[in-house]
Amino acid sequence: GELRISVEQQEQLLRLRYEDDGQGMEAHIAERVFEPFFTTRRESGGTGLGMHIVYNLVTQALAGRITLTTQPDKGVRFDVVFPRVHPSATSA
């Protein structure tokens, strides 16, 4: 497998992109991946909190947004966009 991580600046925003060429996800899984306690690996000890924690860190701690693009057998791509300067740093 191959994975790529890239970061680029777009004016006052930073875009972090994670891409891999793994197994990808079916649409019914991808649409729930950020929900708390959603897992396809409960029998293997999965709690379903990992991507929910990532979502909260991006949207709350970084004041950004995260999107997922995926298809079965086509890998995944996560795009994380957040401000270069956190909004709370400019409001003081």
Write the layout of secondary structure elements.
Layout: E1 3-10, E2 13-20, H1 27-30, H2 50-61, E3 65-70, E4 76-83, H3 87-90
Antiparallel strand pairs: 1-2, 2-4, 3-4
Structural class, from secondary structure content?
Answer: alpha+beta
Radius of gyration: 15 Å
Strand order of the largest sheet: 1-2-4-3
Distance between the termini: 45 Å
Low-pLDDT parts are none
DSSP strand content: 25-35%
Oligomer: single chain
Binned, the helix content reads: 10-25%
Written description of the protein model:
This protein is an alpha+beta fold. Helix content is 22%, strand content 33%. The protein contains three helices and four strands. The protein has helices at residues 27-30, 50-61, 87-90; strands at residues 3-10, 13-20, 65-70, 76-83. The protein has a four-stranded antiparallel beta sheet with strand order 1-2-4-3, with helices on one face. A hairpin with a 2-residue loop joins β1 (3-10) and β2 (13-20). The longest helix is centred in the middle third of the chain and has 12 residues, at 50-61. It is globular, with a radius of gyration of 15 Å. The mean pLDDT is 93.
